[in-house]
Protein backbone atom coordinates (compact mmCIF):
# COMPACT_ATOMS: atom_id res chain seq x y z
CA UNK A 1 0.00 0.00 0.00
CA UNK A 2 1.36 3.40 -0.99
CA UNK A 3 4.45 1.87 -2.52
CA UNK A 4 5.26 2.17 -6.18
CA UNK A 5 4.15 -0.96 -8.02
CA UNK A 6 4.74 -1.92 -11.62
CA UNK A 7 2.01 -2.94 -13.98
CA UNK A 8 2.06 -6.69 -14.34
CA UNK A 9 2.20 -7.65 -18.00
CA UNK A 10 1.69 -11.20 -19.21
CA UNK A 11 1.57 -12.51 -22.76
CA UNK A 12 -0.76 -15.06 -24.27
CA UNK A 13 -0.01 -16.64 -27.64
CA UNK A 14 -3.06 -18.37 -29.04
CA UNK A 15 -2.78 -21.55 -31.13
CA UNK A 16 -2.81 -21.28 -34.93
CA UNK A 17 -6.42 -21.45 -36.12
CA UNK A 18 -7.58 -24.12 -38.60
CA UNK A 19 -7.58 -21.57 -41.39
CA UNK A 20 -4.05 -20.47 -40.58
CA UNK A 21 -2.82 -24.07 -40.45
CA UNK A 22 -4.62 -24.99 -43.68
CA UNK A 23 -3.08 -22.19 -45.66
CA UNK A 24 0.33 -23.12 -44.26
CA UNK A 25 1.13 -20.07 -42.13
CA UNK A 26 4.49 -20.30 -40.39
CA UNK A 27 4.64 -20.12 -36.62
CA UNK A 28 6.95 -17.20 -35.85
CA UNK A 29 6.46 -16.88 -32.09
CA UNK A 30 8.13 -19.31 -29.69
CA UNK A 31 8.02 -19.36 -25.93
CA UNK A 32 11.49 -19.85 -24.40
CA UNK A 33 10.26 -20.43 -20.86
CA UNK A 34 10.81 -18.14 -17.84
CA UNK A 35 8.66 -15.38 -19.31
CA UNK A 36 10.74 -15.00 -22.46
CA UNK A 37 9.34 -15.14 -25.95
CA UNK A 38 11.20 -15.20 -29.24
CA UNK A 39 9.97 -13.86 -32.58
CA UNK A 40 11.85 -15.03 -35.64
CA UNK A 41 10.93 -14.31 -39.23
CA UNK A 42 12.73 -13.26 -42.38
CA UNK A 43 14.05 -9.89 -41.24
CA UNK A 44 13.06 -9.98 -37.59
CA UNK A 45 14.72 -11.68 -34.71
CA UNK A 46 13.80 -10.42 -31.29
CA UNK A 47 13.31 -11.62 -27.72
CA UNK A 48 10.88 -10.05 -25.25
CA UNK A 49 10.43 -10.65 -21.54
CA UNK A 50 7.21 -10.62 -19.51
CA UNK A 51 6.03 -11.63 -16.06
CA UNK A 52 4.67 -14.79 -17.66
CA UNK A 53 4.16 -16.18 -21.16
CA UNK A 54 1.33 -18.57 -21.97
CA UNK A 55 1.76 -20.45 -25.22
CA UNK A 56 -0.74 -22.34 -27.36
CA UNK A 57 -0.83 -25.28 -24.95
CA UNK A 58 -1.76 -23.19 -21.88
CA UNK A 59 -5.21 -23.93 -20.47
CA UNK A 60 -7.63 -21.26 -19.31
CA UNK A 61 -6.97 -22.40 -15.75
CA UNK A 62 -3.20 -22.06 -16.22
CA UNK A 63 -3.73 -18.48 -17.41
CA UNK A 64 -5.93 -17.68 -14.41
CA UNK A 65 -3.46 -19.12 -11.91
CA UNK A 66 -0.25 -18.00 -13.61
CA UNK A 67 -1.25 -14.46 -14.51
CA UNK A 68 -1.81 -13.30 -10.95
CA UNK A 69 -5.56 -12.96 -11.52
CA UNK A 70 -6.39 -14.74 -8.27
CA UNK A 71 -4.27 -12.29 -6.27
CA UNK A 72 -5.97 -9.42 -8.10
CA UNK A 73 -9.37 -10.70 -6.96
CA UNK A 74 -8.11 -10.89 -3.39
CA UNK A 75 -6.69 -7.37 -3.57
CA UNK A 76 -10.05 -6.08 -4.80
CA UNK A 77 -11.62 -7.68 -1.74
CA UNK A 78 -9.05 -5.88 0.41
CA UNK A 79 -10.30 -2.56 -0.96
CA UNK A 80 -7.94 -1.88 -3.87
CA UNK A 81 -8.97 -0.72 -7.36
CA UNK A 82 -7.91 -3.53 -9.62
CA UNK A 83 -8.02 -3.68 -13.39
CA UNK A 84 -7.21 -6.36 -15.91
CA UNK A 85 -7.11 -5.43 -19.54
CA UNK A 86 -6.79 -7.55 -22.64
CA UNK A 87 -4.98 -5.94 -25.52
CA UNK A 88 -4.09 -7.08 -29.04
CA UNK A 89 -5.24 -7.14 -32.64
CA UNK A 90 -8.67 -8.49 -33.62
CA UNK A 91 -8.69 -12.28 -33.53
CA UNK A 92 -5.72 -12.54 -31.15
CA UNK A 93 -7.76 -14.09 -28.33
CA UNK A 94 -8.77 -11.19 -26.05
CA UNK A 95 -12.39 -12.20 -25.66
CA UNK A 96 -11.46 -15.88 -25.43
CA UNK A 97 -9.04 -15.10 -22.60
CA UNK A 98 -11.54 -12.96 -20.70
CA UNK A 99 -14.75 -14.89 -21.31
CA UNK A 100 -13.92 -18.13 -23.09
CA UNK A 101 -15.82 -19.26 -26.18
CA UNK A 102 -18.99 -17.97 -24.49
CA UNK A 103 -18.18 -14.63 -26.00
CA UNK A 104 -18.85 -16.04 -29.43
CA UNK A 105 -21.95 -18.22 -29.16
CA UNK A 106 -24.92 -18.06 -26.83
CA UNK A 107 -26.47 -21.27 -28.09
CA UNK A 108 -24.36 -23.55 -25.91
CA UNK A 109 -22.79 -22.76 -22.59
CA UNK A 110 -19.02 -23.20 -22.63
CA UNK A 111 -17.62 -26.32 -20.91
CA UNK A 112 -16.21 -25.37 -17.48
CA UNK A 113 -12.61 -25.99 -18.57
CA UNK A 114 -12.91 -23.24 -21.20
CA UNK A 115 -14.33 -20.52 -18.97
CA UNK A 116 -12.27 -17.35 -19.05
CA UNK A 117 -10.67 -15.04 -16.50
CA UNK A 118 -13.99 -13.34 -15.78
CA UNK A 119 -16.03 -16.38 -14.74
CA UNK A 120 -13.05 -17.79 -12.81
CA UNK A 121 -12.70 -14.49 -10.96
CA UNK A 122 -16.42 -14.41 -10.13
CA UNK A 123 -16.19 -17.92 -8.71
CA UNK A 124 -13.13 -17.01 -6.69
CA UNK A 125 -14.79 -13.81 -5.43
CA UNK A 126 -17.93 -15.62 -4.31
CA UNK A 127 -15.98 -18.46 -2.67
CA UNK A 128 -13.76 -16.00 -0.82
CA UNK A 129 -16.68 -13.90 0.27
CA UNK A 130 -18.26 -16.99 1.85
CA UNK A 131 -15.08 -18.04 3.61
CA UNK A 132 -13.94 -14.65 4.89
CA UNK A 133 -15.30 -13.43 8.16
CA UNK A 134 -16.84 -10.36 6.65
CA UNK A 135 -20.03 -9.28 5.00
CA UNK A 136 -19.68 -8.48 1.36
CA UNK A 137 -21.95 -6.58 -0.97
CA UNK A 138 -21.23 -7.19 -4.64
CA UNK A 139 -22.56 -5.22 -7.56
CA UNK A 140 -21.67 -4.90 -11.21
CA UNK A 141 -21.72 -2.22 -13.87
CA UNK A 142 -21.03 -2.78 -17.54
CA UNK A 143 -20.16 -0.03 -20.01
CA UNK A 144 -18.92 0.25 -23.54
CA UNK A 145 -17.11 3.10 -25.22
CA UNK A 146 -18.33 3.37 -28.76
CA UNK A 147 -17.60 6.33 -31.02
CA UNK A 148 -16.29 8.24 -28.00
CA UNK A 149 -19.62 7.74 -26.23
CA UNK A 150 -19.97 5.91 -22.95
CA UNK A 151 -23.01 3.60 -23.03
CA UNK A 152 -24.58 1.51 -20.31
CA UNK A 153 -24.83 -2.15 -21.31
CA UNK A 154 -27.04 -3.11 -18.36
CA UNK A 155 -29.84 -0.54 -18.48
CA UNK A 156 -32.85 -1.56 -20.59
CA UNK A 157 -33.91 0.24 -23.74
CA UNK A 158 -31.80 1.53 -26.59
CA UNK A 159 -28.26 2.46 -25.58
CA UNK A 160 -27.90 6.12 -24.64
CA UNK A 161 -24.76 8.09 -23.95
CA UNK A 162 -23.82 8.78 -20.33
CA UNK A 163 -21.81 11.79 -19.21
CA UNK A 164 -18.26 11.27 -17.97
CA UNK A 165 -17.40 13.62 -15.11
CA UNK A 166 -14.50 14.41 -12.85
CA UNK A 167 -14.47 15.23 -9.16
CA UNK A 168 -11.64 15.72 -6.72
CA UNK A 169 -12.69 12.83 -4.51
CA UNK A 170 -13.70 10.32 -7.18
CA UNK A 171 -11.49 11.21 -10.13
CA UNK A 172 -13.16 10.42 -13.46
CA UNK A 173 -16.52 8.68 -13.15
CA UNK A 174 -19.57 7.92 -15.25
CA UNK A 175 -22.73 9.62 -14.11
CA UNK A 176 -25.98 7.63 -13.81
CA UNK A 177 -24.46 4.29 -14.65
CA UNK A 178 -26.51 1.36 -13.50
CA UNK A 179 -25.00 -0.82 -10.81
CA UNK A 180 -26.75 -4.15 -10.24
CA UNK A 181 -26.31 -6.15 -7.04
CA UNK A 182 -25.70 -9.89 -7.28
CA UNK A 183 -25.14 -12.74 -4.87
CA UNK A 184 -24.63 -15.79 -7.04
CA UNK A 185 -22.50 -16.95 -9.93
CA UNK A 186 -25.60 -17.49 -12.07
CA UNK A 187 -26.69 -13.89 -11.50
CA UNK A 188 -23.38 -12.28 -12.47
CA UNK A 189 -22.86 -14.57 -15.46
CA UNK A 190 -26.33 -13.70 -16.68
CA UNK A 191 -25.53 -9.95 -16.32
CA UNK A 192 -22.36 -10.53 -18.32
CA UNK A 193 -24.30 -12.34 -21.06
CA UNK A 194 -27.03 -9.72 -21.16
CA UNK A 195 -24.51 -6.92 -21.50
CA UNK A 196 -22.40 -8.72 -24.11
CA UNK A 197 -25.57 -9.47 -26.05
CA UNK A 198 -26.55 -5.80 -26.04
CA UNK A 199 -23.08 -4.85 -27.14
CA UNK A 200 -23.27 -7.31 -30.02
CA UNK A 201 -26.86 -6.72 -31.15
CA UNK A 202 -26.44 -2.98 -31.24
CA UNK A 203 -23.23 -3.49 -33.17
CA UNK A 204 -25.02 -5.92 -35.49
CA UNK A 205 -27.91 -3.55 -36.18
CA UNK A 206 -25.39 -1.04 -37.41
CA UNK A 207 -23.61 -3.72 -39.39
CA UNK A 208 -20.47 -3.37 -37.33
CA UNK A 209 -18.32 -5.75 -35.45
CA UNK A 210 -18.33 -5.79 -31.67
CA UNK A 211 -14.59 -5.45 -31.42
CA UNK A 212 -15.08 -1.86 -32.50
CA UNK A 213 -16.06 -0.86 -29.01
CA UNK A 214 -14.16 -1.06 -25.74
CA UNK A 215 -16.08 -2.88 -23.00
CA UNK A 216 -15.57 -2.36 -19.25
CA UNK A 217 -17.19 -4.62 -16.69
CA UNK A 218 -16.65 -3.42 -13.13
CA UNK A 219 -17.38 -5.42 -10.00
CA UNK A 220 -17.78 -3.28 -6.90
CA UNK A 221 -16.86 -5.03 -3.67
CA UNK A 222 -17.96 -3.46 -0.44
CA UNK A 223 -16.89 -5.29 2.64
CA UNK A 224 -17.43 -4.78 6.31
CA UNK A 225 -16.21 -6.90 9.17
CA UNK A 226 -19.00 -8.79 10.82
CA UNK A 227 -19.40 -7.76 14.41
CA UNK A 228 -20.97 -10.07 16.95
CA UNK A 229 -23.42 -7.36 18.00
CA UNK A 230 -24.34 -5.28 15.01
CA UNK A 231 -25.54 -1.82 15.90
CA UNK A 232 -29.22 -1.55 15.03
CA UNK A 233 -30.18 0.31 11.90
CA UNK A 234 -26.71 0.49 10.46
CA UNK A 235 -26.58 -0.34 6.80
CA UNK A 236 -23.54 -0.44 4.57
CA UNK A 237 -21.27 2.29 5.85
CA UNK A 238 -20.15 5.17 3.69
CA UNK A 239 -16.57 5.00 2.50
CA UNK A 240 -14.15 5.19 5.39
CA UNK A 241 -16.73 4.93 8.13
CA UNK A 242 -15.33 2.81 10.90
CA UNK A 243 -17.28 0.24 12.81
CA UNK A 244 -15.44 -1.10 15.77
CA UNK A 245 -11.87 -1.83 14.75
CA UNK A 246 -12.68 -2.65 11.13
CA UNK A 247 -13.42 0.14 8.68
CA UNK A 248 -15.52 -0.74 5.67
CA UNK A 249 -13.61 -1.20 2.45
CA UNK A 250 -14.59 -0.57 -1.12
CA UNK A 251 -12.64 -2.29 -3.83
CA UNK A 252 -13.25 -2.69 -7.52
CA UNK A 253 -12.32 -5.28 -10.08
CA UNK A 254 -12.56 -4.05 -13.63
CA UNK A 255 -12.27 -6.17 -16.79
CA UNK A 256 -11.45 -4.27 -19.97
CA UNK A 257 -11.87 -5.82 -23.41
CA UNK A 258 -10.23 -3.34 -25.76
CA UNK A 259 -11.19 -2.90 -29.40
CA UNK A 260 -8.76 -4.45 -31.89
CA UNK A 261 -5.52 -2.53 -32.15
CA UNK A 262 -4.96 -2.96 -35.89
CA UNK A 263 -7.51 -0.28 -36.75
CA UNK A 264 -4.93 2.33 -36.04
CA UNK A 265 -2.81 1.31 -38.98
CA UNK A 266 -5.60 0.31 -41.35
CA UNK A 267 -7.34 3.62 -41.11
CA UNK A 268 -4.12 5.53 -41.31
CA UNK A 269 -3.27 3.94 -44.63
CA UNK A 270 -6.68 3.75 -46.29
CA UNK A 271 -7.63 7.37 -45.92
CA UNK A 272 -11.29 6.32 -45.57
CA UNK A 273 -11.77 7.57 -42.09
CA UNK A 274 -15.13 6.59 -40.75
CA UNK A 275 -16.17 8.21 -37.51
CA UNK A 276 -16.01 4.85 -35.81
CA UNK A 277 -12.52 3.87 -36.90
CA UNK A 278 -11.43 7.36 -36.00
CA UNK A 279 -12.71 6.94 -32.45
CA UNK A 280 -10.92 3.65 -31.93
CA UNK A 281 -7.88 5.21 -33.46
CA UNK A 282 -8.09 8.12 -31.14
CA UNK A 283 -8.60 6.16 -27.94
CA UNK A 284 -5.96 3.52 -28.65
CA UNK A 285 -3.48 6.17 -29.71
CA UNK A 286 -4.28 8.16 -26.58
CA UNK A 287 -3.80 5.02 -24.48
CA UNK A 288 -0.47 4.27 -26.18
CA UNK A 289 0.62 7.86 -25.68
CA UNK A 290 -0.29 7.83 -21.96
CA UNK A 291 1.55 4.52 -21.51
CA UNK A 292 4.69 5.88 -23.20
CA UNK A 293 4.68 8.95 -20.96
CA UNK A 294 3.89 6.94 -17.84
CA UNK A 295 6.76 4.57 -18.63
CA UNK A 296 9.23 7.36 -17.86
CA UNK A 297 10.62 7.56 -14.32
CA UNK A 298 8.30 9.50 -11.99
CA UNK A 299 10.67 12.43 -11.61
CA UNK A 300 10.86 12.93 -15.38
CA UNK A 301 7.19 12.64 -16.13
CA UNK A 302 5.39 15.42 -17.85
CA UNK A 303 1.66 16.01 -17.91
CA UNK A 304 -0.24 12.82 -18.75
CA UNK A 305 -2.99 13.59 -21.28
CA UNK A 306 -5.73 11.37 -19.84
CA UNK A 307 -8.32 13.83 -21.11
CA UNK A 308 -7.53 12.99 -24.72
CA UNK A 309 -10.07 10.18 -24.83
CA UNK A 310 -12.89 8.64 -22.80
CA UNK A 311 -10.94 5.41 -22.53
CA UNK A 312 -7.88 7.02 -20.97
CA UNK A 313 -10.06 9.03 -18.59
CA UNK A 314 -11.73 5.86 -17.37
CA UNK A 315 -8.38 4.07 -17.08
CA UNK A 316 -6.52 6.98 -15.45
CA UNK A 317 -6.56 5.45 -12.00
CA UNK A 318 -5.58 1.99 -13.24
CA UNK A 319 -2.66 3.31 -15.24
CA UNK A 320 -1.16 6.12 -13.27
CA UNK A 321 -3.05 6.47 -10.04
CA UNK A 322 -3.82 4.24 -7.12
CA UNK A 323 -4.88 1.12 -8.99
CA UNK A 324 -3.30 -2.30 -9.39
CA UNK A 325 -3.22 -3.40 -13.00
CA UNK A 326 -2.71 -6.59 -14.93
CA UNK A 327 -2.33 -6.39 -18.68
CA UNK A 328 -2.81 -9.47 -20.82
CA UNK A 329 -1.26 -8.91 -24.23
CA UNK A 330 -2.71 -11.32 -26.80
CA UNK A 331 -0.99 -12.30 -30.03
CA UNK A 332 -1.32 -14.78 -32.88
CA UNK A 333 1.73 -16.93 -33.67
CA UNK A 334 1.15 -16.67 -37.43
CA UNK A 335 3.70 -15.16 -39.81
CA UNK A 336 0.86 -13.22 -41.43
CA UNK A 337 0.27 -11.27 -38.24
CA UNK A 338 3.94 -10.43 -37.73
CA UNK A 339 3.77 -6.66 -37.87
CA UNK A 340 0.75 -6.46 -35.54
CA UNK A 341 2.40 -8.97 -33.22
CA UNK A 342 5.59 -6.92 -33.02
CA UNK A 343 3.62 -3.77 -32.36
CA UNK A 344 1.68 -5.48 -29.54
CA UNK A 345 4.94 -6.80 -28.05
CA UNK A 346 6.56 -3.36 -28.10
CA UNK A 347 3.46 -1.76 -26.58
CA UNK A 348 3.33 -4.42 -23.86
CA UNK A 349 7.04 -4.09 -23.10
CA UNK A 350 6.61 -0.37 -22.61
CA UNK A 351 3.68 -0.95 -20.27
CA UNK A 352 5.96 -3.00 -17.98
CA UNK A 353 7.72 0.20 -16.95
CA UNK A 354 4.52 1.94 -15.84
CA UNK A 355 4.06 2.23 -12.09
CA UNK A 356 1.15 3.08 -9.81
CA UNK A 357 0.84 3.70 -6.07
CA UNK A 358 -1.92 1.42 -4.81
P1 LIG B 1 -10.41 -11.13 -30.12
O1 LIG B 1 -11.39 -10.96 -29.01
O2 LIG B 1 -9.02 -10.71 -29.74
O3 LIG B 1 -10.85 -10.49 -31.39
P2 LIG B 1 -11.17 -13.90 -29.98
O4 LIG B 1 -11.05 -14.11 -28.52
O5 LIG B 1 -12.55 -13.71 -30.51
O6 LIG B 1 -10.27 -12.68 -30.45
O7 LIG B 1 -10.43 -15.13 -30.69
C1 LIG B 1 -10.42 -15.34 -32.10
C2 LIG B 1 -10.62 -16.82 -32.39
O8 LIG B 1 -9.54 -17.61 -31.90
C3 LIG B 1 -11.88 -17.38 -31.76
O9 LIG B 1 -12.46 -18.30 -32.62
C4 LIG B 1 -11.36 -18.07 -30.50
O10 LIG B 1 -12.22 -19.13 -30.10
C5 LIG B 1 -10.00 -18.57 -30.95
N1 LIG B 1 -9.04 -18.60 -29.83
C6 LIG B 1 -8.48 -17.52 -29.26
N2 LIG B 1 -7.63 -17.87 -28.28
C7 LIG B 1 -7.66 -19.21 -28.21
C8 LIG B 1 -7.00 -20.19 -27.39
N3 LIG B 1 -6.12 -19.84 -26.43
N4 LIG B 1 -7.29 -21.49 -27.61
C9 LIG B 1 -8.16 -21.86 -28.57
N5 LIG B 1 -8.80 -20.99 -29.37
C10 LIG B 1 -8.58 -19.69 -29.21
MG1 LIG C 1 -13.14 -9.73 -28.96
UniProtKB/TrEMBL annotation:
<keyword id="KW-0505">Motor protein</keyword>
<dbReference type="GO" id="GO:0005874">
    <property type="term" value="C:microtubule"/>
</dbReference>
<dbReference type="InterPro" id="IPR027640">
    <property type="entry name" value="Kinesin-like_fam"/>
</dbReference>
<dbReference type="InterPro" id="IPR027417">
    <property type="entry name" value="P-loop_NTPase"/>
</dbReference>
<dbReference type="GO" id="GO:0005875">
    <property type="term" value="C:microtubule associated complex"/>
</dbReference>
<dbReference type="GO" id="GO:0051231">
    <property type="term" value="P:spindle elongation"/>
</dbReference>
<feature type="domain" description="Kinesin motor">
    <location>
        <begin position="6"/>
        <end position="354"/>
    </location>
</feature>
<dbReference type="InterPro" id="IPR036961">
    <property type="entry name" value="Kinesin_motor_dom_sf"/>
</dbReference>
<dbReference type="GO" id="GO:0007018">
    <property type="term" value="P:microtubule-based movement"/>
</dbReference>
<protein>
    <recommendedName>
        <fullName>Kinesin-like protein</fullName>
    </recommendedName>
</protein>
<keyword id="KW-0963">Cytoplasm</keyword>
<dbReference type="GO" id="GO:0008017">
    <property type="term" value="F:microtubule binding"/>
</dbReference>
<dbReference type="GO" id="GO:0005524">
    <property type="term" value="F:ATP binding"/>
</dbReference>
<feature type="binding site">
    <location>
        <begin position="88"/>
        <end position="95"/>
    </location>
    <ligand>
        <name>ATP</name>
    </ligand>
</feature>
<dbReference type="Pfam" id="PF00225">
    <property type="entry name" value="Kinesin"/>
</dbReference>
<keyword id="KW-0493">Microtubule</keyword>
<dbReference type="InterPro" id="IPR019821">
    <property type="entry name" value="Kinesin_motor_CS"/>
</dbReference>
<dbReference type="GO" id="GO:0003777">
    <property type="term" value="F:microtubule motor activity"/>
</dbReference>
<keyword id="KW-0067">ATP-binding</keyword>
<dbReference type="InterPro" id="IPR001752">
    <property type="entry name" value="Kinesin_motor_dom"/>
</dbReference>
<comment type="similarity">
    <text>Belongs to the TRAFAC class myosin-kinesin ATPase superfamily. Kinesin family.</text>
</comment>
<keyword id="KW-0547">Nucleotide-binding</keyword>
<keyword id="KW-0206">Cytoskeleton</keyword>
<dbReference type="GO" id="GO:0007052">
    <property type="term" value="P:mitotic spindle organization"/>
</dbReference>
